[in-house]
Amino acid sequence: MADTAALERALINADAAGDVEAARVLAGEITRLRGTPEAPKPDKYQQAAIEERDALKAKGIDTGAGYTRRLAQGATLNFADEVLAGLSTPLEMVKRGTFDPREGYNYAKAREDLILDDARQNTGVLGTAVEIGGGVGAGAGALRAGLTFARNLPQNAGILSRSLASAGDSAAFGALAGAGEGSGIKERFNNALLGGLVGGGIGLVAPGLTSLIGQVASPVISNLRARFNPQGFAQSQVARAVEESGLTPNQLSLDMVQAANEGQGAYTLADALGNAGQRMLATTTRSPGRARTDVLEFLDQRQAGQGRRIASALSEGFDAPQTAAQTEARLTAQRAADADAAYGAARQQAGSVNVTPAIQEIDRTLQPGVSRLFNPQSNIADDSIEATLRRARGLLTDGRSQVSRFEEAFRVKTELDNMIDNARPTMQRVLIPVRNALDRQLEQASAPYAAARNQFRQQSQAIESVGTGRDASMRGRTEDVIPAYATMRPDQQAAYRAGYVDPLIAQTQGSAFGANKARPLINDAFADEAAVMAPGNAMMQRRIGRENTMFQTRHASVGNSKTAENLNDDAAMGVSPTLVGQLLSGNWSGALRTSLAAGQNALTGNTAQVRQAVADILLQRGSNMSPAALQRMVDETTRRIQQIQMITRSMGRAAAGGLSVTPAATEARR
User: Fold this and answer.
1) Is 314 within 8 Å of 508 (Cβ atoms)?
2) What secondary structure does DSSP assign to 205-256, as a single string?
3) What percentage of the chain carries pLDDT values higher than 70?
4) Phi/psi of residue 407, each to 5°?
5) What is the CA radius of gyration of the chain?
6) pLDDT tens, 284-343?
7) Which of 85, 284, 316, 375 could form a disulfide with 370 if both were Cys (CB 3.0 to 4.6 A apart)?
8) Whole-structure pTM over 0.70, yes or no?
């Protein structure tokens, strides 16, 4: 041991004197005495590099490399020494007097290895960080250049796809960095294989780990952003709902403007967004605050007017501005006025009327096959048909004289019409031929009479169509309603529509507050019938659809749940009966869970200010909706999400690049 101590003192003196050769010999002797295997002797290339470095140092020239060289080594994934050696190979060939490029490269490579080892020894931990930072920059740069397996992934790629892409990138970085470290093909291959396996494994778990970290940090970030910028946070949330709806801001704006133009100015952005908007608006009513009051008051007021809006949609859609009763009264009055004028002209141009054919039609029933002369009356009482016919006959003749004046004959015809209208079917079958026979004689006696009669008949049919339509609406089947409507004249169809829509409007007006008055109109039968009958069906169906959507929005927000209202009231008071009970019973873990649950709104950024801002945005209507502002809101949120995704991916690829050079950066070359 004494000899070893003496040699160590001699080694210190040799180092102090700058005698490199003596120091090397002394170090080898000390190693031999201690029984430790002596380090392998440098080959001729390494020895030449050492001698060149020592000669420069003896002349006072600093040959040490610093942070820049380590940064370059990391940035090139351990290939800086190979690149620099290759560039200086021609100079080494000249210096060594050889024409073999391999010899020149080997000398240059040994020198670069020595320089890098010195740099790693001289710069310490900070230099290691710089070299790893170079690898980080290489990974991020490769991502920006598109040199990544993730470049073909869709924007909404799942965790598995992103993990596989990350594993591929990290494996490539690790294999490349491993191949750049070592000497000889075998060593480089082994390093590349090991680096690829380690890098692939790290890259495989990186996206999941990043996602987990993001989920843990998200509540904190959301809370901070909601506190400092509630309007911006609210806009981001609404923009997310817009993305979920699959609609563009222009489509949403056009929908709302069209609703306002079609009499539904209370149709909001929350309605236009569909389920995404309804769920988001519901969040404003499930927590205490001014937003809850504003939203519920608006929704209740809007629901109160649903019946009037649907009634208007039905009336306009079926082109039936009057009720069925009003339509019947109007048509009846019009028929009377037209009849007075038309029949007045018929009377003025009328001659005498031959009522004999009508009397003969009656006699064919009362005295079939024989004349009155040979068939005297018996004392058998008349049945109801005979009695009715005798009454009709008595209106035309007394047996000695007959009605001949047009005015008198026309009154008889009118009386027969009334008798037919009020008679049983069996009675109608015997009266109608009599009436028709008299009608033909009236037509022959006055040329204008036929036109007046036909006009009166058509107007009567239109009046009857009101009742027919009313019955079809209440009891008819589509298979019967549509063909019957199709065979009618336009004036009958108009009256039919008034009767058809009248019970629907009455039902809508009579429904209780809170009921969905649009629901009875959302069925296949009504859709098919309205498509044939309603002139304004397209707009009417849009309005009914919106009314159903607006009801769903209110239902999602209110839900008729007293439990939800009670919970909101408790939250507003700041007192939880459950929490009090848990504290009194000593259930500390339950109390802690209850407290955390009560504070989850604040943790996630769902503050009162945010809810108010969300409500203000979602309750915008066609009259005050700006599609440009909505588009900016969506674009800004999309850019923010894309930036976060890019940062996340960059962090993952940058970490892969840094990790790939870490083994070499933390250990000096042997």
Assistant:
1) yes
2) HHHHHHHHHHHHHHHHHHHHHHHH-HHHHHHHHHHHHHHHHT--HHHHHHHH
3) 66
4) -60, -40
5) 51
6) 888 778 888 899 999 999 999 999 999 999 999 999 999 999 999 999 999 889 888 888
7) 375
8) no
In sequence order, the β-bridge partners of residue 402 are 397
CA angle 172, 174, 176 (to 5 degrees): 65
| Single-letter code of the amino acid located at 529 | E
In eight-state DSSP terms, residue 621 is B
Tell me how far apart the alpha carbons of residues 620 and 448 are, in angstroms, rounded to a whole number: 64
**How big is the chain, counted in residues?**
670
Q: Which residue has the higher pLDDT, 313 or 37?
A: 313
User: What's the rounded Cα separation, in Å, for the pair 560 and 52?
Assistant: 90
**How far is it, in rounded angstroms, from Cα 594 to Cα 214?**
25
Distances (CA, A) of 302 to 49, 123, 619: 89, 74, 12
Between residues 643 and 103, the one the model is more confident about: 103
- The span from the CA of 619 to the CA of 612, in Å, is 11
If we measure between CA atoms, which residue out of 127, 55, 111, 37 comes closest to residue 665? 127
State the DSSP H helix or E strand holding residue 350, giving kind and residue range, or none if neither. Answer: none
Tokens of 554: 């209110």
CB-CB contact of 668 with 141 (8 Å): no
Q: Is 12 helix (H, G, I), strand (E, B) or coil?
A: helix
Q: List the structure tokens of 315.
A: 């009336």
Instruction: Say if CB 402 and CB 356 are below 8 A apart.
Output: yes
List the chain domain ranges: 1-39, 44-228+628-670, 233-307+557-625, 350-445
Three-state secondary-structure class, residue 489: coil
Structure tokens at 303: 């629901």
**Out of 50-59, 349-358, 465-474, which region has the weakest mean confidence (pLDDT)?**
50-59
Distance CA 23, CA 26 (A): 5
Is pLDDT of 109 > 80? Answer: no
Q: How far apart are CA 289 and CA 209, in angstroms?
A: 37
Q: Is 506 left (phi over 0), alpha (psi -120 to 50) or beta?
A: alpha
* φ, ψ at 397 (rounded to 5°): -155, 155
Six-digit token string for 149: 């397996």
Residue 353 CA, chain-centre distance (Å), reads 78
- Provide CB contacts within 8 A for 520, sequence distance 6+: 504, 507
Separation of alpha carbons 586 and 149, rounded Å: 56
3-state secondary structure string across 138-193: HHHHHHHCCCCHHHHCCCCCCHHHHHHHHHHHHHHHHHHHHHCCCCCHHHHHHHHH
Cα 434 to Cα 486: distance, rounded to the nearest angstrom: 32
Q: Which two tokens stand for residue 112?
A: 């670069």
Query: Torsion angle, CA of 83/85/88/94, rounded to 10 degrees?
Result: -150
CB-based contact 442:409 (threshold 8 Å) = yes
CB 523 within 8 A of CB 300: no
Dmax of the chain from CA atoms?
A: 176
Only one residue has tokens 């290895």, namely 113
pLDDT of residue 494: 94
Q: What is the pLDDT of residue 576?
A: 47
Give 132's Cβ-side CA count (13 Å radius).
Answer: 15
Cα–Cα distance measured from residue 415 to residue 582, given in angstroms and rounded to the nearest whole number: 90
